[in-house]
Every structure is written in structure tokens, then in C-alpha cells.
Amino acid sequence: MAPAASALLAALPAITLGILSSIPSLVIAVRRRRMADWPACAAFTAPNVAWVLQAALAPEETRGAKSGAELLPALVATGGAAAHALLSWRPWQPGSPAPEATA
Q: What is the model's pTM?
């Protein structure tokens, strides 16, 4: 993947404030076609689902530390997904075996 495309993919969670935080890992898993990439996709989908459920089930008058706890899953999903998208696309180095796509 081109560096510009990788940077845009990494910026997606921050631009959408964590709402689309699982999209970069989904794109990586689909493009690489490796089973090892799917747990990362699930790992970034889980905090996003937890964030939505927590926001839906929390009372409206939540204040203080409880309202800060509601923000934690969003921050984890946003920061983790952006770091994953930036660090997972490493260029191929000459002398190392070529990356192979496995089904």
C-alpha cells in the first residue's frame, strides 16, 4: 500500500472520532488475506461495540468519572486502530522472503 493511502487509512479513526475505528483493520485483513489479521479486526471492533452499548445504556445524568469512563473505549479504539494501520504496512525488504497471500 502506498504511504499516502496508509496515512489516510490510519487517519480514518481520528477523523471519525472512533466511529469507524474497525475499518482500517478490516481493510488490512481483506487485502492481506491472512487469518492472523482477523483477530486485530475483532480487537478494534469490540471497543467500538462496547462504546456504543455503554452510550446507549448509560443514564443521561451521568457526570464525573462515570462520564469519563464512557470515553475510554472510544479512545482505545481510535488510538489503537490508527497505530495498527500505521505500523502494519511495512515495506518489503530485499533479501527477505516475499509476503505471500494465503487463503
A: 0.66
